[in-house]
Design brief:
The complex is a heterodimer. By secondary structure, chain A is mostly helical. Chain A has a single domain, classed as Winged helix-like DNA-binding domain superfamily/Winged helix DNA-binding domain (Arc Repressor Mutant, subunit A), CATH 1.10.10.10. Chain A is about 55% helix and about 10% strand. By secondary structure, chain B is mainly alpha-helical. Chain B is about 80% helix and about 0% strand. In chain B, helix 9 packs across helix 10 and helix 14 runs antiparallel to helix 15. The chains are: A mainly alpha, B mainly alpha.
């Protein structure tokens, strides 16, 4: 599944993983690693696929940078799961990244538009 | 599912270099993910052995996930970096200002270092504390070295019949000191190596040069006590070089705490440990010649990499002993 050829440069995804995670955590309010992976795959209709284990180092970095906050919660079956919520700092950064992304995408579309002969 | 996942998580754990509590938490989170994935696949009709295999394949190779997790956890803040380099800077200042010759200030400085190291150890193992621990065990090692004379005299009396042995109570006290020092050193080194060998190398980093300096001073002065009592300039002629060396160790420690990449951490400790110590040896002993200098460098390399073998031995013993999260 993870070995299927991708139509994008993996560096491009790597550079935007933080934005994807922050966006989804912000939207969900509170979510966890496995749910995040599934949601990215579902929303991108299978376009974004990466090694699932890499989401945890990415979440840890966001946590170390004070952008998200992790918290262990006990499930009804007695097991524990780590849930993540976005912090105010994370929300600010997300807004900046969204603005930057929209400006970038608009500029790319303008430049890439074929000129009329 | 249990067996494949258990083997996989054991492998991740074996390559993690985190404190035991954090390591257990990380493994719990990965286990929770894999369990849910296998359960989802089973619901889709995938047989359990295949589900575990697919879940593990899509999760990523154990060693590279462990490396990424290490990097994610491995970087301390600037505050931690600043705290981590302090004991080196304190020792550098003791040399730069020649204050090391004042017993009270020297004792106060090392007592403060020992207290902070102890508090750091009890607080759970932040990366800044390892440099403090290295200096915390140093006074006991120095005391053990300086008190060897009565033991040597007694040994000489037993073997040759010449001279006078030290009193029995004196030897008893020294035996207790040696036993305590050895116990402290071995138990601390074992605990640190179990987490990460490079942290033990970082902890041991100042010891070779400090040891060589003490040997040089005691050989020059007869015993260190004479040097401490004396304000003669000849005992201060190495102070500048020693001050620079420990200042460099301070900067190296700060970088060690800050950088994420493990290769950079290892490279910084080994390079500064060998090159810095070799320069310090040159300052202490003058031009010793190329071959002896290379031999010293080789010994330093061995000294700094012994923790790697100690860790491999310890981890081999404890592998699979830790329980999986329930």
């Amino acid at each position: 599944m993870a070995d299927t050829p991708r139509a994008y440069d993996s560096d491009l995804l790597r550079g935007n993983t933080d934005s994807l995670l922050l966006f989804l955590i912000n939207e969900r309010g509170q979510t966890y690693g496995y749910r995040l992976i599934k949601e990215i795959e579902e929303r991108s209709q299978g376009y974004f696929r990466f090694k699932e284990g890499t989401v945890y180092p990415a979440l840890r970095k966001l946590e170390n940078d004070g952008l998200v906050q992790g918290e262990w919660k006990k499930l009804p079956n007695g097991q524990e799961r780590r849930y993540y919520t976005i912090t105010d700092r994370g929300r600010e950064l997300l807004q900046k990244k969204l603005d930057m992304w929209q400006s970038f995408a608009s500029a790319m579309a303008l430049v890439m538009k074929p000129t009329e002969a | 599912m249990q067996r494949e996942v258990s083997i996989y998580l054991d492998e991740v754990r074996a390559h993690l270099h985190l404190d035991p509590r954090t390591s257990q938490r990380v493994i719990s989170e990965l286990y929770s993910h894999l369990e849910e994935k296998v359960s989802d696949l089973a619901e889709q009709g995938v047989p359990e052995p295949d589900a575990a295999r697919i879940a593990l394949t899509s999760f990523g190779e154990a060693r590279s996930i462990a490396r990424l997790l290490d990097e994610a956890h491995g970087s301390g803040s600037w505050t931690e970096a600043l705290i981590g380099c302090q004991p080196h800077l304190i020792v550098a200042a003791l040399f730069a200002t020649h204050v090391w010759r004042h017993p009270l200030l020297l004792a106060t400085s090392f007592a403060a270092i020992a207290v902070i190291a102890f508090l750091g150890w009890r607080s759970g193992g932040a990366s800044w504390m390892y440099s403090w621990i290295g200096y915390a065990v140093l006074p006991l090692l120095v005391l053990s070295y300086l008190s060897m004379d009565p033991v040597a005299r007694t040994l000489s009396f037993v073997l040759t019949g010449h001279g006078a042995p030290a009193p029995l109570w004196h030897l008893g006290l020294l035996a207790a000191l040696y036993a305590f020092t050895l116990w402290l050193l071995v138990s601390t080194a074992t605990a640190v190596a179990r987490r990460d060998w490079i942290l033990l190398s970082l902890m041991l980093l100042p010891l070779p040069v400090m040891g060589l300096w003490i040997i040089t001073v005691t050989q020059s002065a007869g015993v260190l006590v004479n040097a401490l009592r004396s304000l003669e300039a000849r005992f201060s002629r190495w102070d500048e070089a020693m001050g620079y060396f420990f200042a460099v160790l301070g900067v190296t420690t700060a970088l060690f705490v800050r950088v994420r990449q493990r290769a950079l951490k290892v490279g910084a400790v080994i390079a500064v440990g060998i090159v810095g110590s070799a320069i310090a040896v040159h300052s202490l002993w003058g031009d010793v010649g190329l071959l002896p200098l290379l031999a010293i460098c080789f010994c330093l390399l061995l000294f700094l990499t012994v923790p790697l073998f100690l860790q491999a031995m310890l981890r081999h013993d404890e592998r699979s002993e830790e329980p999986l999260p329930s």
